[in-house]
Amino acid sequence: MGTLVEEIFSRKAGRRVKAGEIVLLDVDYIMSHDNTTPLAIKAFREIGKPIRDKDRIVIHFDHAYPAPNVLAAENHRKILDFAKEQELPHLYKQGVCHQVMIEEGYVTPGSIVIGADSHSNTYGAMGAFGSGFGSTEIAVAWVTGKCWFKVPETIRIELHGEAQNGVYSKDVMICIAGLLGMDGATYRSVEFGGEYIDNLPVHERIVFPNMSTEIGAKCGLIAADEVTINYLESETPARGPFERIVPVNPQYERVIEIDVSIIAPQVACHPDVDNVKPLEEVKGLEVHEVYIGTCTNARFEDIEIVANMLKGKKVNPFVRVIVTPASERIYRKALKNGLIEILMDAGCTVTATGCGACIGRHGGILAPGERALTTMNRNFIGRMGSPLSEVYLASPATAAATALTGRITDPREYL
Amino acid sequence: MGKAWKFGDNLNTDEIIPGRFNITIDPLELAKNVFCEIKPEYAKGVRPGDVIVGGGNFGCGSSREHAPIAIKGSQAKCVIASSYARIFFRNAINIGLPILECPEAANDVEEGDEVDVDLTSGQIINATKNKTYQAHPLPDFVLKIASAGGIVSFLKEHDIQELMS
Ligand code: SF4
Prior knowledge:
The structure holds two protein chains of two kinds. Chain A starts with a helix and ends in a 10-residue tail after the last helix. Chain A is built from 16 helices and 18 strands. Chain A has helices at 4-13, 37-47, 70-86, 97-103, 135-144, 169-180, 195-198, 202-205, 207-212, 226-235, 279-282, 294-297, 300-310, 328-336, 339-345, 396-405, and strands at 22-26, 29-33, 57-60, 90-92, 112-115, 129-132, 146-150, 154-160, 189-193, 219-221, 254-259, 266-268, 276-278, 289-292, 320-323, 349-350, 371-374, 390-393. By secondary structure, chain A is α/β, with parallel strands linked by helices. By secondary structure, chain B is α/β, with parallel strands linked by helices. Chain B has a seven-stranded mixed sheet. The complex binds iron/sulfur cluster (SF4).
């Protein structure tokens, strides 16, 4: 009897656990990347004990890969030397960590996946508990296979109705961020459900848990259903039987009901994710870069939306339009389907996979005074480069429409 | 018995220790600059046994562990606040800095009050105001990590299972 997070934790603990309790649980996978692994290695050396289970460790090279500077190269060297020394089997250079974790089948319903990255909440889209931790905890989990958790209270978000044409899960999530605010779900588990979610394919669902981080949540969860299981079986190497854990007589701290049919395209404006406006209010604002990428919105279907809108057209010549597919698998599929060619013909720059411009290290850094419209999840000051630049967040369709005009544009004009 | 050092709501990790000092993780080095921008008198004036009293969402901002390490390095006995940012809360426990949640004390205690804290029972005595407040007692496992000096030192000597037993 409990919320989804209580059910997942109870299953793992082998007894009923409730919000507020502290539990020590086995973790299924421990994720870290090129930015956070070096510190974990340092903590690991200090502890001085062997790795518990190498098979549970997954390390990605994505944040600054291929290395854009010497410091990044040194980090990569450090991690690869360590991985060689410890004979770690799961190293990936195939795209953004969270996307690759899901694609490679590491994330299954009811599992616990911890990551040294704040957007590890993303795994909640598959009905798994995913959350971000500091590097020391990652080292502790390498050595013990375990992590302690305080079982969180839950905010349930019920999404009803059908979205209008031109409105995507990104618009709905931006709207939620505006409603709840940046600390609206601190410490909490946020459960997303309702008929809107039930009818949504996995690639759109992922946006909700991914951006639950932006409202302070410890995890963002969607209960696994037929859609999840079909996705796992057809798109990933994960094989069932999969547990379908659902909330049972849950006690929510708060339930928020939203009718998505009244939501129009939304934009999260500089400089906070909760500075949300209907696109209508910021329409026409000039942009200097359009960036389509990241763990939030650079999946095949996102790129397909963009390609369909740009087909046979040219993007505004005074705007840099950069597309970074979230993973190699996505890149290949887009290539095979001719999408990359369409994007290039339209004047987009398609880069290698990874986090790219998202953390302002490489692949599309902004100059002072520049404004970007992107499909990212976060718009902290200086996120994409100069602290004097501005980042606006929106859906891939809004990004494509904006790429054509060089001004924030309603995608419904081009659909 | 120690002195209270009072801070407001939403104290962020940059206010605890500005990013430019995070080139070291040596607690004593970090402690030299802890709160340097918002309470420069702290680093020189703090005595072992003093306590930090904050408001809501204490330690928000970056996930780096330097902030709790700097406070611990300054010899403060513990932090009392009405609530904590999630990652600060975990980092503080893992590096062995005791933290108490007590909205009443967070509101009532003023800068310079003489305060005594019993970490095991969660009792906070304000000798200046002649008042007592009750925080949630720290879970046993937190006290175990704190007395070992942090989770890394704890794991050198113990099995993680012992945290819960
Ligand atoms: S794409 Fe951006 S948000 Fe996602 S993991 Fe990479 S840096 Fe973080």
